[in-house]
Every structure is written in C-alpha cells, then in structure tokens.
Amino acid sequence: MSNPVAPRRFGYRWTVCALLFLVTTINYVDRQVLGILAPTLQRELHWSESQYGDVVSWFSLVYAFGFLAAGRLLDRVGVRRGFAVAVVAWSVAAIGHAFARTTAGFSAARALLGLGESANFPGAIKTVAEWFPKRERALAAGIFNAGTNTGAIITPLVVPWIALTWGWRWAFIATGSVGFVWLVLWLALYRSPETHPKVSGAELAHIRSDPAESAVAAIPWIGLLGARQTWAFAVGKLLADPIWWFYLYWLPKFLDTRYGIKLAQLALPLIVVYLVADAGSIGGGWLSSALIKHGWTVNRARKTAMLAMALLIVPTALAPLAKSLWIAVLIVSVAAAAHQAWSANVYTLASDMFPRQAVGSVVGIGAFAGAMGGVLFQRVTGRILQANGNDYAPIFVVCGLAYVTAWIIIHVLVPRLEPAQIGGATRGILFKEARQ
Fold first, then answer.
1. Tell me: the pLDDT tens digits for 42-100?
2. Domains and CATH numbers, the chain
3. Which of 22, 33, 67, 401 could bridge across to 367 with cysteines, CB 3.0–4.6 Å?
4. Which alpha helices (DSSP H) does 11-119 contain, by range?
5. Which residues share a beta bridge with 426?
6. Distance CA 349, CA 343 (A)
7. Residue 124 phi/psi, 5° resolution?
C-alpha cells in the first residue's frame, strides 16, 4: 500500500508540535533551576554531596511512579485535560521550592515536581501518535524533545541573573509561574484532530494515512509487561535517562569542582552544551525519518541511527581527563547531542511497536524504568563523590558505555522491531518491512 503524499501547506499538526516543544521547554526550566543553583545552595545550606544526591533523587523516585499513573491516565482521559492538570501541579511545586528551608523541604518540593512533570513525555508521545503518521513521528518527537535543550539553555541565562539580583527564592517563583501562561494557550488551541476546526480534510487524511490498526480494547499492564517490545523500550530508557539527568543536575557542580566555574560564569559553557544538544535532538529524529523515506525499513533506520549515536557517546569517559574547560565542554556537548538523537528514536519505538491505545501506557512503563535508574544513579553518584574526594572519572566511564550496552540489549530483544504480540494477536502495525 503506497503512502499518500503529505499536504504541501503547513498543517495544524505542526502548531500542536510547537505547543509540545514549549511545554517541554518549561518542564526542563523548572526541573533544572535546582541544578544551576546547587553550588550556591550547598554553600548556603551546608549540604553534603550525598545529601544533594538524595534531594535530587526524590524527584526521580516520584517521577518514576508518576509515569505509571500518568501514562494510564492519559490513555483514559486524553491529553487535553491530562496535560492541563499536570502543568498546574508542577508549576505549583516549582514555586514551592522558594519556601523550603531544609533538605527535607527541598526533597518534598522535588517529589511534588516529579509527580506533576511525569505526565509531560507520555502526553507528548501520545499527542504525536494521534497527530502524525508514523513516517513523521521521529521528526516530531525530535522537535518537541529539543525543548529539553532549549530549557537547559534558557535556565543558565535567566536563573543566575534572577538569583544574583533578587535572591535564589525568586528564581523558583519566576520560572514556576511560566507554566500558567502555557496552560492558557493549550486550552485555547488544542482539540483532537477529528474535531479541530483548523484541520482540513486533506490534513486529517494525511494524519490517518498509516495502515488501519485493529480495534483494541484497553490492554492491561500485565499484557504489556509480557511483551518483549515493552522491555526493549524500557531498557532504552533505563540505561540512558540517568545519564541525561546526571548532566542536568551534576554538570554545574562538575564544572565548579574541576574548573572553578561559579554561578556568574556558568551560562556560556552550559549554553554551548545544550545548544549542540538541540541540533542532536532534531537531527536524530530527522535521520531515521529520512532513511525511511529513502526506502529503509523502520527496523534498519531506527537501529542504525541509535547505534551511530551510542558510538558517538563512548568518548564521554574521557571528559574528566580534559586539561581545559572547553575540551571537556566539547566532549560533553557531543554526548548530549547524541543522547537527544538517541531519545528521539527511542521514544518513537513505542509508537512503532504498539497501537495508539497503548502508547501512553508503554511510554509510562519505560519512563518508570528510566526514572528508577536515575534514582539509583543519583544516590550512588553522591556517595561515590563524597567517598573519593569529588573524582568524577568512574561516573563518566558509566556515562560513556551505557548506550552501547542498551543498543545491544534492544537488538537482542527485538531483532526486527516487529509489532507486539499480546494474547496471541498482533497489536501494532509497522511500515511494510522488507527483508534486509
């Protein structure tokens, strides 16, 4: 069956993608404020390395369990209402950091932030699955996922200035308030494709141009957990997500410890890292989508892109050995870009192998695995650094090897990215696959 030609004009689906990019940007600004202020807060509040590791791990712990509930909830109530509730919850939690005085207070604020923010990625992936045909999904995922880097660029520009001008508490209040602005836009602009007045018949036909999926009732978690495809997606998150959070929460501290970079000088190195990472996010999604359009199978295109990114990340192990700040920044920048390219493709695996009705739940399960890996990695990182005198070398070795390990496991679990078999029936449709 041939795919219809995409509409030439700029479709409304890209406006929806822009909203997802904006909310993901806000999501990452809110979660990164603590990382930017970490050296300042540690000196003012006298936190140890292990205490800081425990504080940031509370975000990941609640985030992990929140993913399980968020994915399921979004499959049931839809993304319009689900996103609205989530943004209100995490914006209130972000502002709440300003009123914390102890490590316990910050831990509680991080936990509430993690609960609200857990809906962002299941919701965004589910929205992409509803608004884009499969051949465009990796690109759309790459675009909204670029919001993670944009948020990470904005934060070191804005937060140090606010903190140095009005104090660190106002940094949390100002950034946490932005989510309410996005909420107004979302409620005004978002409807489902079938009922949206801005979606033409031609665009709706393009959105629904994939081969029809069989009607599927709600699939219980036990059915999803029995599928190799679920575990493949979960491994891609389990081994990669903790590395990204390490950059987010510990990179400012690494630069402070290794090169003496303080709050006022932090912006430029972090902007370089995340600006390069932005290119990787969009480029990684574009790469596999372009290969598919040139006749590659979904399996070959996704895995080729992911393997290339995994190999680019291996030199990250050398970052602590760099003699100058900018060599270290270059190494981490390449790794961050490759991580985002990896993520754009891993996110798309869920919609490649599962029907739309199950995508939110599968993404929730995989994100739970990634967040639990983050809990462990953050707590272990704090204790290793406290025990070895802030030597980051063993941590960066793990960062360098995690993705190659994940790629190998994914390939063993799903050699051809075939649709999930649940209860003996095929529950997903891939592009027509030719033997390689």
1. 888 888 888 888 888 899 889 888 877 887 788 888 889 989 999 999 999 999 999 98
2. 13-209+220-426 (1.20.1250.20)
3. 67
4. 13-45, 49-77, 79-96, 103-117
5. 421
6. 10
7. -65, -45
